[in-house]
Prior knowledge:
Strand order of the largest sheet: 1-2
Strand content: under 5%
Number of strands: 2
Number of helices: 18
CATH architecture: Up-down Bundle
Helix content: over 70%
Low-confidence stretches: 396-432
Largest sheet: 2 strands, antiparallel
CATH topology: Growth Hormone, Chain: A
Structural class: mainly alpha
Radius of gyration: 21 Å
Order of helices and strands: HHHHHHHHHHHHHHHHHEHE
Oligomer: single chain
CATH class: Mainly Alpha
Amino acid sequence: MRSILRRPDFRLLFGGLVASMTGESILLLALAIWVKDLTDSNGMAGATIFAIAAPMVLAPLVGWVADRFRRRPFLIAANLGIAAALTPLYAVRTADDVWIVYLVAALYGLSYLAISAALNGLIKEVVPVALLAEANGALQTVKQGLRLIGPLLGAGLYVAFGGWPLATIGAAGFVLAALAILFLRVSEDKPKPPELHWLGEATAGVKYLIRQAALRRTTVGVALAVLLVGLGESVFFAYVDDGLHRDPAFLGVLVSVQGIGGLLGGLIAARVVRGMGEIGAAAVGVILIGVTNVAFVYPSLWLAFPATVLFGLGIPLAIVGFNTLLQRVTPPAIMGRVSGATEMLIAFPQALSIGAGALLVSLVDYRILFAAMAVGITLAGWYLWVGRRLSPRVVVEEPAAAVTEAGSGGPAGGADLVEASLHLDDRGVGQR
C-alpha cells in the first residue's frame, strides 16, 4: 500500500474518496434503522437497501452517459448532485414520511452508478496497470475499516439526535470528495463522438463483457453470490431481533465488527491477487462469505462476532479481485459502459433478492434462509475457483526509480507509470 500512496495524484483522489466513504458509512445503515424505528417492520427496513439497489437496472445507460464526458468533471458533478439529493431527509418526521427516505435512497443508488462508472476509468488514468490491485486494496482497506466506527457512530448519532445530522455529514463527505477531484491533475482526451445508435452504444459494455471470458466468468460467479447475499439485508434484522434479542441499532455493532475483517482483507487483498490471480482472489472471498453464513444459523454472540469478522474478510478480497480484473482488461473508451453492465448484472439481481428477502423473512425462519445462503454462495465461490486460470497469478516488480519519481511529485500518467514491470507466471504471457 505504501507504494501506491507515494503517488501524489492518487493520494489526492484517495483523500477525497475517504471523505465520501466516511459519510456513506455513517449514513446508509442509519437510514434502514430510521425506517425500522418509524415503522417497526423488518421488511420495510430491508426495503431501504432495495431502494438503493433498484436503479441498477439503468446501469448500462448511466455508463454510456459517463463515457460521453471526461471523468474528472463528471465525478465532480455527480458528487455535488448526491450531496444535494440528501437534503429532503430534513423533512422526515413520521412513518408517513418513509417514502422520502426511499426516494433519497434511490437517488443515492443512481448517483452510485454514475460515480462507479466514471471512477474506474479515472483510477486507470491515475494508476499504472501494475498497481491497480494496490490502489483497489487501499480503497477497500479504508472502506472496510470505516465499518469499525462508521455504522456504530451513525447508529449512536441517530439514537442521540435523529436522522437529520446524518444527512449533513453525508452531504459534507460528498462535497469534500468533489473538491479533492477538482484539484486532481490528470490529462484526459475528449471522448470520441458516438459511432452507433444510442442503443448500440449503451449495450457495447454488455457485448464486451460477454466476449471477454475471464470477466464473464467473474461477473457470473460474483452475481450469483451477491444474489444470495441480498437476502441477508432483511434476514439480519430478524437475526438481531429474534435470534440475539437485541435492539435494531445493535446491527450497527455487528457491521462495525465486520469492519475488523474487512480491514484485514483490504490490507492483504493486493497480495492475494498477486498470488492467486484476480479470479482466484474473488473466489476465496466469496467462499469465505458463504461458509460463514453457517454460523448465523445458530444465534449466539460467541459465534456472531468471529463469523462476522470472517464474513468481512471475504468482502474486500472479492471486490478487489473483481475490480482489478475489470480495470485491467477493459479499454478506457468503454470503461463506463462495462462498469455499468457489471453493476446491472450483479446489483439488479441483488435488488430483486433484497425484495424477496423482505418477503421471505416474514414467511420462513431466518435460520433456514441463512442455511440456503451458505450453500448457494459457497457453490458460486467454487465456480469462480474452477475458472481461476483465466486470470493467472501476477507478480509485480516496481523498480525503485519509478517509485522515487512518483514520490517526488511527477504527474501520474507519464512515462514513470510504465516503468513498473508486470510479469505473469508460466500460465500466462507477460504484459507491460
